[in-house]
Amino acid sequence: MPSESFRYSKQISDQGRERSVEVRRERAALKQRLKAGEISPADVLNDEGNVAAKIRMFAFLKNCPGVGSAGARTLLRASGLSETKTIRSLGPVQKARILTMLEMIAGGVRVDRVAETIMSER
Predict the structure, then answer these.
(1) pLDDT 10s digits, 92-108
(2) Which of 15, 56, 76, 94 lies most in the core, judged by the most C-beta atoms within 10 Å?
(3) CA nearest to 57, candidates 107, 121, 112, 101
(4) Cβ contacts of 71 within 8 Å, gap of 6 or more
(5) Tell me, what's the pLDDT at 9?
(6) b/e sequence 75-93, b meaning 16+ C-beta within 10 Å
(7) Are 114 and 72 in contact (CB under 8 A)?
(8) In this structure, are residues 23 and 50 in contact, taking their beta carbons and an 8 Å threshold?
(9) Residue 90 CA: distances (Å) to CA of 20, 54, 66, 76, 98
């Protein structure tokens, strides 16, 4: 016969699990909106909510229009950032540098050229 504390813990665990699934779905929806161009990368980077804060930089850049997987790795390597770094952990200078890179790509500059420019600035 389970004790009351076990039932209480299981209830809390179930609620936590449901909340985790909900947050992951919100994060996935945000990335989809970013990929579709419904929301700008600047809005995601400057979002103070918890949804965008835990998105990893590789996933963020990969879902930005014109970047893709290989481009995301190239940009992260050029800027000296880890793929597992989250948006929350970026400093203001890093955010500004990323926005500059994304603006250049949106303007038609190829990802490898952007990476070369960033590397020369470091």
Answers:
(1) 999 999 999 999 999 99
(2) 76
(3) 101
(4) 61, 62, 105, 111
(5) 79
(6) bbebbebeeeeebeebeee
(7) no
(8) yes
(9) 23, 11, 22, 12, 10
How many whole angstroms separate alpha carbon 84 and alpha carbon 57?
Answer: 6
| Tokens, residue 8 | 């209480």
What is the per-residue pLDDT across 24-74, written as a single tens digit (0 to 9) for each?
A: 999 999 999 999 999 999 999 988 778 899 999 999 999 999 999 999 999
Tokens of 99: 């926005």
